[in-house]
């Protein structure tokens, strides 16, 4: 039996996540990629719950950094970074519902797939930034290009090959009224850079606007906790999702499930506020769906809860608080 058959989706009426009609979003059909999460863009696709969608995602720079000799400061036009596919309108989705997004596959795209990481002026976890203003001079700009393949992994150097561990760096639903940069994570999802948003996971996203208006992009070939220098291994992909709708399941912050654990995701500054949001939401989930009293859940998480640092470089930081399924089921 697949874990999906006993998942939260199954408990809420989507027993096997039965696939519906198949759709694709190519670069041509996407047309303009978006740099804002909001309800004002025309949907690129309208689907029914259960739809399977394959999207041709760009890297975080929309392919503009082509060579290791490039200088990001001369090429990139901030804040036009982190291009997003979508929005995807899901029929029947209303405020107070939940979008359940099952990540089926993420594969590198291109005749010679490559990943890009770089050092960008006044951006990163160990440098002065606009928000952390210091007199230190910026680090020199540097670009690194590496070969990325599904079978061979990531050829970091002649001596070192990293495993290909792809995930979706940015995914979320539209806010109800705000238009917010795709560089920022928040209650709707967004630029969480959380490596657990990976193949064979389900991410649960609150619906805030009619049709949910799902956006996604910024796939990473691999990333360490925190996305330390600010740029993971960015690469274009074909990412395939199945989108389901859970009616009248209402919560504020994203949730995630895989075969091992349940996770709640919080974003904020300072970092401890992101951790507080994530853990508070996990306490509430344990109370609502697993029969715990909130204070019992609070004490149990003190003993066996785990925190995953998604990013420590974006306008808000993201943390995921999790508990193993074996403690709940």
Folded structure, characterized:
The longest helix is centred in the C-terminal third of the chain and has 20 residues, at 271-290. The two termini are 15 Å apart. It contains 5 helices and 21 strands. It has helices spanning 8-11, 27-30, 72-75, 271-290, 294-304, and strands at residues 22-25, 36-37, 45-47, 51-57, 84-90, 98-108, 114-119, 142-149, 153-155, 161-162, 167-173, 180-181, 185-186, 189-190, 202-206, 214-220, 237-246, 255-257, 261-268, 306-311, 317-324. The mean pLDDT is 95. The chain is mostly beta strands and 329 residues long. The protein is globular and about 55 Å long. It has a 9-stranded mixed β-sheet with strand order 1-4-17-6-15-18-19-21-20. It has a 6-stranded mixed β-sheet with strand order 3-5-16-11-14-13, with no helix packed on it.
Brief summary:
Helix content is 13%, strand content 34%. It has five helices and 21 strands.
Q: Which SSEs are present, and which pair or pack?
A:
Elements (H helix, E strand, L loop, with lengths): L7 H4 L10 E4 L1 H4 L5 E2 L7 E3 L3 E7 L14 H4 L8 E7 L7 E11 L5 E6 L22 E8 L3 E3 L5 E2 L4 E7 L6 E2 L3 E2 L2 E2 L11 E5 L7 E7 L16 E10 L8 E3 L3 E8 L2 H20 L3 H11 L1 E6 L5 E8 L5
Parallel strand pairs: 1-4, 3-5
Antiparallel strand pairs: 2-12, 4-17, 5-16, 6-15, 6-17, 7-8, 8-9, 9-10, 11-14, 11-16, 13-14, 15-18, 18-19, 19-21, 20-21
Helix pairs in contact: 4-5
């Amino acid at each position: 039996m697949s874990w999906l058959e006993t998942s939260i989706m199954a408990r809420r009426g989507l027993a096997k996540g039965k696939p519906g009609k198949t759709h694709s979003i190519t670069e041509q059909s996407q047309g303009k990629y978006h740099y804002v999460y909001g309800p004002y863009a025309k949907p690129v696709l309208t689907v029914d719950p259960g739809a399977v969608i394959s999207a041709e995602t760009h890297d975080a720079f929309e392919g503009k950094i082509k060579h290791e000799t490039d200088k990001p400061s001369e090429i990139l036009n901030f804040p036009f970074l982190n291009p997003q596919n979508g929005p995807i309108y899901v029929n029947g989705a209303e405020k107070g519902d939940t979008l359940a997004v099952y990540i089926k596959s993420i594969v590198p795209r291109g005749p010679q797939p490559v990943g890009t990481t770089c050092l960008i002026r006044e951006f990163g976890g160990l440098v002065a930034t606009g928000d952390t203003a210091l007199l230190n001079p910026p680090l020199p700009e540097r670009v690194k290009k590496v070969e990325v393949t599904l079978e061979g992994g990531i050829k970091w150097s002649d001596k070192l090959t990293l495993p290909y561990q792809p995930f979706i760096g940015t995914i979320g639903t539209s806010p109800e009224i705000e238009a917010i940069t795709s560089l920022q994570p928040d209650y709707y999802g967004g630029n969480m850079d959380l490596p657990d948003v990976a193949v064979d996971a389900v991410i649960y996203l609150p619906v805030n606007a009619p049709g949910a208006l799902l956006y996604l992009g910024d796939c990473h070939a691999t990333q360490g906790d925190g996305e330390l220098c600010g740029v993971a291994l960015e690469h274009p992909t074909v990412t395939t999702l199945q989108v389901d709708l859970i009616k009248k399941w209402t919560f504020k912050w994203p949730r995630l499930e895989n075969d091992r654990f349940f996770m709640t995701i919080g974003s904020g500054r300072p970092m401890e506020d992101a951790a507080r949001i994530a853990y508070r939401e996990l306490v509430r989930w344990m109370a609502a769906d697993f029969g715990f009293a909130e204070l019992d859940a609070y004490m149990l998480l003190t003993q066996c809860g785990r925190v995953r640092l998604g990013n420590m470089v974006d306008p808000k930081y993201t943390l995921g608080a999790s508990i193993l399924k074996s403690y709940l089921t």
